[in-house]
Amino acid sequence: MTETQPALLAENINVTFGTTQALKNVTLRVDKGEMVALIGPSGSGKSTLLRVSAGLQLADSTSGASRIFGDRVQEKGKLSPGVRRARAKVGFIFQQFNLVKRISLYSNVLIGALGRMPGWQGVMGRFSPEDRKKAMDSLERVGIAEYAGNRAANLSGGQQQRGAIARAMVQGAQAIFADEPIASLDPVSARNVMRLLAELNEQDGITVVVTLHQVDYALKYCRRAVALKAGEIIYDGPTSGLTRDKLIEIYGDEYIGVL
Ligand code: ADP
Ligand code: MG
């Protein structure tokens, strides 16, 4: 696929849980190199949109398609044959520090290389010297190389999130999808993680899609925000347009500085 393909194109996505319509005909396009915040109060559909976009969750059969860098993820509620290839281009970061707790930080980061290996190689987990060097280089880059030998369980939340970012780098991810990556962090760690995402976006051209309920961080680190309310996009534009008055207009009492 060509360079002109958007990093993400999710078209006419519907998701229903029982009687809840979590997403209502949502279309999201993110171009290569963008850093976009998905904002909205709890339950507005941020996580569902991110998960469906990456094929971690199926949309309803009434939906259109989701594609990542042109590779089809799902269409009409069915996973596409190319989903593995599409997913390999995305590094995931979640609120609940998704590292393997009982193994070292270094091993966790090295695991990222499996995402680049085709079929059986990935299963066998044969790491090359280049993979190992890349793992250490990435740990240096995110500033936690000194903890390489520590078990992930013994690291702080901020260190674990940086580890997840280093793992995405080893994977060679062209995009990072981060679902509330700073929601469980103290303000200093939160700032550092957002700075790191912004740096990877600016310096390495990695596309970042990040869900945040802390609007301040979206305003500070992202140029574009997509605001969700009850499963619908009600604002998609520059974060500079999200003034306090605009946020109150959109969310009413739900907006109290945070969502
Ligand atoms: P957000 O990330 O913005 O908090 P979610 O995408 O998690 O919102 O949820 C959107 C809506 O879908 C909510 O009403 C939520 O309760 C519902 N929902 C999400 N996941 C599930 C699920 N696995 N089962 C049932 N309902 C769900
Ligand atoms: Mg969520």
TrEMBL record:
SUPFAM superfamilies: P-loop containing nucleoside triphosphate hydrolases. GO terms for molecular function: ATP binding. Gene3D superfamilies: P-loop containing nucleotide triphosphate hydrolases (3.40.50.300). The keyword DNA-binding does not apply. Residues 8-255 form the ABC transporter domain. Keywords: ATP-binding, Cell membrane, Membrane, Nucleotide-binding, Translocase, Transport. InterPro entries: AAA+_ATPase (IPR003593), ABC_transporter-like_ATP-bd (IPR003439), ABC_transpr_PhnC (IPR012693), MetN_ABC_transporter-like (IPR050086), P-loop_NTPase (IPR027417). This is Phosphonate ABC transporter ATP-binding protein. It comes from Hyphobacterium lacteum.
